[in-house]
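task queued by scheduler; priority normal; single chain, no ligands, no partner chains; default sampling; output format set to structure tokens
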Amino acid sequence: MAKSAVLRTFGRHWLKPLTFWLLALPGLWLIWQWGLLLSGMPNRLGFNPIETTHHFLGDTALRILLVTLAVTPFRDITRWLPIMKVRRRIGLAAFWYAFAHVAAYLGLDLFIAAGMSLPGMLAGLWEDVAKRIYITLGMVAFILLIPLAVTSFNTAIRALGPQLWQRIHWAIYPLAILAVLHHGFMEKGNQPGPWIHGAILAILLGYRLVRTARRRSQPKPSAS
């Protein structure tokens, strides 16, 4: 009973702020490292800070996206319902890190490479999307993520209705696959990161397939 009371108190008062700060930590760390770099102090951004920033933001967005998908299995296994209160918050954090990842690619890479010319940046973006498969996959995944972020509020659920809202948010499954493939094609050589992310995603999607199959196999109650 005491344990249940502690969990209820934690879920009611501490879960949301703790989740917020945990999700903010990677971004705060990156800002700190850039502050060190710009002030001429030792930092962890390496000899190519722009590339490090790209990778860090992209990896963070993908990992938080996987955490979002892990919330429902965690709820089912532990029966701890308060975790569902922060699922949309985690998903929004994945969007903002993905947005920062794309913004860093457009601003720090293409815009500067194009001599700070907007037409040149757009031309470079089109060339990358057309020629580099990992850019194509990443941009499609990000575009699919936008409607999920825009509708991740109670107002949107009420306006769309639960069924349409749920159908829109089914896009998280194909976009997660595209995000993992984006990471895999982006890495040079056979790196373990994409394989680990792919294995985690396969487990999370497999869990949902098994759960859906079990629900469909259960006999429906007969009308009396």
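post-processing summary
- Residues 70 and 203 are 10 Å apart (CA to CA).
- The chain has a mean pLDDT of 90.
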